[in-house]
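PT: before anyone asks, these are the final sequences, not the draft ones from last week. 852 residues across everything. Please model them as a single complex and drop the result in this thread when it's through.
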Amino acid sequence: MYRAIPDEILLECEKPARYVGNEVNIVKKDPSKTDIRFAFCFPDVYEVGMSHLGLQILYYFLNRRDDTYCERCFAPWTDMENKMREKHIPLFALESQEPLKKFDFVGFTLQYELCYTNVLNMLDLAGIPVYRKDRTEKDPIIICGGSCAYNPEPLADFVDIFYLGEGEVLYDEILDIYKSFKKDGHTKQEFLERLLDIDGLYMPQFYDVRYKQNGEVEAITPNNTKARRTITKVIVKDMDKAFFPEKQLVPFIEVVHDRVTLELFRGCIRGCRFCQAGFIYRPVREKKAETLLKQAESLVKSSGHEEISLTSLATSDYTCFEALADGLLEKFKGKEINLSLPSLRVDSFSLELMKRIQEVRKSSLTFAAEAGTQRLRDVINKNISEDDILNGCALAFEGGWLKVKMYFMLGLPTETDEDLYGISSLCDKIVEKFFEIPKENRPRPVTVNASASCFVPKPFTPFQWDAQDTYEDFGRKGQLVKNAISRKQVRFTYHNTMMSSLEGVMARGDRRVSAAVYKAWQLGCRYDGWSELFDFEKWKQAFEYCGLDMAFYANRKRSFDEVLPWDHISVGVSKRFLIEEREKASKAETTPNCRQICSQCGAKCFKGGVCYDKQ
Amino acid sequence: MTNNNFRYRFKFTKTDEMKFIGHLDFMVSFQRACKRADIPIAYSNGFNPHQLLNFASPLSLGYTSIGDYGEFQLTKEIPAEEIKERLNAALPFGVRILDAAELKKEAEKVMTSLSAAAYEIEFEKSVTPDTIYEKLGSFISQNEIIVLKKTKHKIEDTNIKPDIINITDISDNTAKLKAVVYSGSVRNLKPESIAEAFMIYTGLEFFKNKNHYTRLDMYMTDENGKLVGLLDGVEKI
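LR: through. Structure below.
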């Protein structure tokens, strides 16, 4: 078969399988016989992108249409990028190996703020002008979705359409309109204007941003009469009726997650105040256990994977968890299929279950404590107590687990040094708990791996107005915790502080930040989320060049009445609710979860999910 | 092999995009295909049970093959022809089972049996059919054929001539050699070493990845000392 990259170049690059396609369950179509060509791009390396459930769903969702051919494209690693530039090979899609420039749509999923330079780089490698204003009728339409699309402004100058919400909802309508517009000879501009009729799509060119003297946004206003003031995300109401592929692409090389992924539900009932996913994906919508069992069966059969992962934001909150776990164990008995249960709350029930599913191999147990003291956990509405953790650990140690992972955050709002010392003392207490069990029941030593991320305030959370710590603060705090840990069984690491700083800038950036992203990319930034390629000096240079101050975006406290760069976008959760939550956080007051009581966050407007379940 | 499993050996191809898949990744892909085909493959006991599946010898990244061999144990007896059909329906494009047979319990393991392999070397354009016609004879009749072999710790001159069984000119419009060489755990030669030695001999610069290598078949030695295919020579049921 034709390959875009000559064999000898492929063989000189790391992991050539990233670039040749041909995987099991790949969709093959004759591009000349389809009306619409859609390139689904993941702005990171193949192994990361292929582990993304959204890609797997949308790939088959779009390809179920006979008139559409959806192909994949990943960011080439730097070794391949250099070869492609040297040999003038344009970026191509894996299936047909044809250049992206030939496509009708080039779509990116934005899962992480530090992939933005990769988006620009991929467009450039494809020979597509990076800036929207430089593109012509001949160029593909650039559409972006994913969690980072909820603050689209840092990419607003480059992208034609931001898709806000879940892909299954609008793509059929978009593609139908596109097809008829293309047939009737309408222009791209006419097509984009037509899309103004659909809620959930944001076309930045139809909105102007004005700034105040002090740099704050003054107003974001439509410049087209059809453009709506607020664009609201779209969601699937009934997850049991939603499209879900019976197949999964199975890569030939090891990727981050080599397994069947079952999606138990979308959304989260908890409302942890730092967690963007907990707000933007509301309300919780579950799949029935029987739906999942059916999907598990066909996915295992068609993939040949030996592991099923149950994914969601909090697996223990799945109301049919017991029925599902029992059903899966029954179905795959004696078939050498493992179950993996990420995001599981550790209690006696889950430990009993884990004993059943992994008789011999005991992996580590994970607790996301997030903060070191009860006060700070109340501030962030993280509903887990020290007793929960210590009792969970005691049960785990008795059950034979000897590795504990702890997740924390540095720099949470209202944090003091006392909270930081809380992290070290909690880790030490876990080790002490281990020594409480009789010596004869301790076959091997315990290890506690504690890691801390640096808190990044995100849009659509109660902390969206808060100042982020500087990277110097993060560094001091990380060292403070590290030095305070006394037990040698505890290993403490913390995330790259400068990377977290940049993430903070991007997360709450406005449209002016587009210029800095462009400049940073020109200076050679790409793969900013990869520590071996991350170059903070270049980013500083880029911001300086554009006359922008990173601290203005990351480290500045906003007032509740400031116009935020994403104020024209709605995830259903109201600003009023977020303000209330922020005020409760200041008083360390918690908010009950969605199943205990409805707190009137606003997500009820979507007319589905947990908001309409019997309380 | 003191168990009640049923042993099968199969001959297969690895062509097209599959040449970019390294040996360990290929193993995993093959295992998944067995799962998809619902082949009742037996698992090892122990802490990390794995499929009882082996290949005769890894194929280097970038090589294709039209004659590789593998072996597995099943918990149920299935006609070899059915195994071939079911696997072919599940295997990725570029991998095909050409033949399969059930083995006697006492048959030697495929990795141990392997003694030689045949390769085709298709040269890049700088080597012409004429070059081969003119130089092959004198190349082979050298007392020693020396290449630099890299091991983990050192680089040293190695005489590869004793590892070569025969080389034939099979050029058509492009320059091609067929080389039969010793292969397996005792003695092993990669065809790229022959290509390297030949190109240096003819005064050309050698780039490993510009030539193309195909494994044509793999052999065992029968009781008369003759080379026979790994499926032809084995004790079948």
